[in-house]
TrEMBL record:
It is an enzyme of class 3 (hydrolase). Belongs to the peptidase C69 family. This is Dipeptidase. PANTHER family: LD30995P, SECERNIN. Residues 1-22 form the signal peptide. NCBIfam families: C69_fam_dipept (NF033678). One of its GO terms (molecular function) is cysteine-type exopeptidase activity. It comes from Treponema vincentii. InterPro entries: C69_dipept_A-like, Peptidase_C69. Keywords: Dipeptidase, Hydrolase, Protease, Signal. It comes from the Bacteria.
Length: 492
């Protein structure tokens, strides 16, 4: 018993790993002609800590008698409109440092994922300092998504806020609706640029600015008025092939922390490009060798460069920053589906904790509630929390990926494949209900579907966890004769 307790304490320490050694997230976007099913994608892994409970909830539509005065944890203050639209969000359970409504849909079918953190270069920040109590990731989705009806409106609202109040951080974000997707970089206190995502391209987005030439006269660009004039006047303006380059002008020098994710992600999706690790200037936009399937993005968010000499699972590569990292608190992939009613928007595939040994579940944009285990807001471990259950399964699976984690991952992958195959029929049903019976009937169907799927996975995960812990404890200090296999894998 004493050995068992000690083993559990040591393993549980892995739950708290990465509390202070991670910065930011990894984003991904793809245009409709770049994907296998023709649906645009915005996606991101939210990375910070190996022990940071996230909750998934729905904020209702609200009408107040007067505008709302909003103040966040860093002192950012703004007057919000009297009416706010319903929206879904994955937010922090413990909000002393901010709400962090990281991603969601609103009732107009607009989706937003914010943010991927990035830092300006020293010259850029000196010329236009970040504003201590300006707009930050902690509040961005909260003060934008409930107040917009299109993706362009979202970008314009952020631009106006940054113009007026300034930005507290360098950030990258994605906003999409039924017609278009936008990619936005906020560089310094008041400088930013946003562009439409090209239809035939994708982008892997680590924690650095990558946007190249920005045509500020184009209707497909929204940029700060001094985006180009400021660096010219202050001496940090940079060009590539005779044209202004936003990322080089405003960003830091490329670090290995970011370089490895660009190199790994671009070579995974565009192997024929043979992108060199020491590439001097990475392109933001790339064409994939083949159409990108939903499963490809799921695997990208789990990717640890296993097929390269940077394999992050090897002891000698312990310092390599993988895309699939244990510091992910949740991972999401949003498919914008123009085949669905605008109010539905699309589907968010969400995996709680790090995706490597977790499972992606689909949620329509018009849900009105979420499963109870998603709303448990304990800061410390509790078994009735979806986040904490999936996080601890990940910890024990990663102790020995071959013997503990392999069959957990393969089980969840098979579960995902089943959901993906069923999704087309569910899309047809929600569209039929919306047309024949109205918005309320479609929302009721979507909500029940999401809750039922979550309940089924939670029940299965509750079986996997104690079996996995017991197997790991029994095999402490020795190599198991065969790999762990969850009992649910044998159920029909």
């Amino acid at each position: 018993m004493k050995k068992m307790c000690l083993f559990l304490l040591v393993a549980a320490a892995g739950v708290w790993a990465g509390m202070s050694n991670a910065f930011g997230c990894t984003g991904f976007v793809a245009g409709k002609d770049a994907t296998a099913d023709g649906f645009r994608i915005i996606a991101r892994t939210e990375d910070l800590s190996g022990a940071h409970n996230k909750t998934f909830k729905v904020y209702p539509h609200q009408k107040n008698r007067k505008p709302v005065q909003f103040t966040d944890s860093i002192g950012f203050k703004i007057e919000l409109p009297k009416e706010s639209y319903r929206y879904t969000a994955i937010c922090d359970a413990e909000q002393s440092e901010g709400i962090y409504d990281e991603v969601g849909f609103n009732e107009y079918g607009v989706a937003m994922s914010a943010t991927v953190s990035a830092s300006p270069g020293k010259a850029a920040e000196a010329a236009d300092p970040l504003v201590e109590n300006g707009l930050s990731e902690a509040s961005m989705t909260t003060v934008v998504l409930p107040y917009i009806t299109t993706a362009r409106e979202g970008v314009e609202r952020i631009a106006k806020i940054v113009d007026t109040y300034g930005s507290a951080e360098g950030n990258i974000l994605f906003i999409a609706d039924d017609k278009e997707s936008w990619y936005m970089e906020i560089y310094t206190g008041h400088q930013y640029a946003a562009v439409k995502v090209p239809d035939d391209m994708y982008a892997v987005v680590p924690n650095c600015f990558l946007l190249g030439y920005v045509d500020t006269t184009s209707k497909d660009v929204i940029a700060s008025k001094d985006l180009i004039n400021l660096p010219k006047s202050k001496g940090f303006y940079k060009e590539v092939d005779g044209k202004f380059h936003a990322g080089l002008t405003y960003g830091e020098e490329m670090s290995d922390y970011n370089r490895v994710r660009l190199w790994g992600g671009q070579n995974k999706l565009s192997p024929s490009a043979k992108v060199a690790y020491d590439t001097k200037l990475f392109s933001l936009w790339r064409k994939a060798d083949k159409k990108i399937a939903l499963e490809d993005v799921m695997e990208l968010q789990r990717y640890r460069y296993e097929d390269t000499d940077k394999n992050a699972n090897l002891p000698e590569n312990a310092g390599v920053r993988a895309i699939g990292t244990p510091t992910s608190m949740e991972c999401h992939i949003i498919q914008m589906k123009d085949t669905l009613p605008k109010a539905v928007g699309g589907v968010m595939w969400m995996a709680m904790a790090n995706a490597e040994h977790s499972v992606y579940l689909p949620f329509y944009g018009n849900i009105t509630d979420t499963y109870a285990a998603y709303k448990v807001d304990n800061k410390m471990y509790t078994p009735d929390s979806f986040y904490w259950l999936m996080r601890t399964i990940n910890v024990f699976s990663a102790l020995n990926r071959d013997m503990y984690g392999k069959n957990v991952r393969s089980y969840w992958k098979a579960y995902e494949q089943k959901l993906i195959k069923e999704q087309k029929g569910k899309d047809a049903e929600i569209a039929r209900l919306y047309t024949k019976k109205g918005e309320s009937a479609a929302a009721k169907y979507a909500t029940k579907l999401g809750n039922d799927q979550a309940a089924d996975v939670f029940e299965k995960a509750q079986k996997i966890y104690p079996e996995l812990v017991g197997f790991a404890a029994q095999n402490e200090g020795r190599t198991p004769k065969k790999a762990f296999e969850p009992s649910v894998a044998k159920e029909k």
